[in-house]
Hints:
The chain is mainly β. It has one domain (about 5-60, about 65-80). About 0% of the residues lie in helices and about 40% in strands. It has no helices and five strands. Strands 3-4-5 form a three-stranded antiparallel sheet, with no helix packed on it. A two-stranded antiparallel ribbon has the order 1-2. Bound molecules: zinc ion. Zinc ion binds near residues 37 and 38.
Amino acid sequence: MNPLEEIDVLCPYCNEIITLLIDCSQSQQSYTEDCFVCCRPIVVIVHLPLYDPLYDPMAMDSTAEQGTDDDLALSVQVRREDD
Length: 83
Ligand SMILES: [Zn+2]
């Protein structure tokens, strides 16, 4: 498995698409990354259910496709630092 995943998100300040490189070796992490476009600090919150021992796939919406190995169920939230 690729330990680094590239994820496109929208900057909460300028709405430009920026690509984040997520370190998948940690199940949950949050950090601040400056937007490449407007240079303002974006709070990035990463959640990797596959690596979470408390994660129960049966609790998820069963309409989600299973077995696609390019889908890590990687969840990334971004928000303004001053929110
Ligand atoms: Zn920006």
